[in-house]
Amino acid sequence: MSWKDHVAALESTGNVTKAAIYGADATLYAKSDDFGIKDSEVQFLITALDHEQFAALLPVQGVVIAGRKYKFLRRDEGRSIFAADGPYGCCLVKSTKTVIVATHQPPISPSNCICEVEKVADWFVSMQM
Q1: How confident is residue 34, by pLDDT bands cut at 50, 70 and 90?
Q2: How far apart (Å, rounded) are the C-alpha atoms in residues 11 and 5?
């Protein structure tokens, strides 16, 4: 299964609006065709996953994905970041060697989006990906 297939599989669940998969070094592997996510946005968030001094900026600066600013909600050090903008939201979940970024919009619930992304990230961990 290609990286693009994993992105398509996330979207096909109906619980993810847009998705992208990056390497832990912020190298883009695959993304939704019309997902305007920027490498610089992802690089900052990947750094914030593992470094407290960058994570400390999230409550102040928010989380920016594809130019949209979301309110920072939670960070699980080394694993995930969650953010929302009203009924819209995003999550970033790290596996062994990849980082999955996903967004959701109504009527998708945040918990459904997070669940789908974490399932794929857990599978990547089991496959040492």
Answers
A1: very high
A2: 10
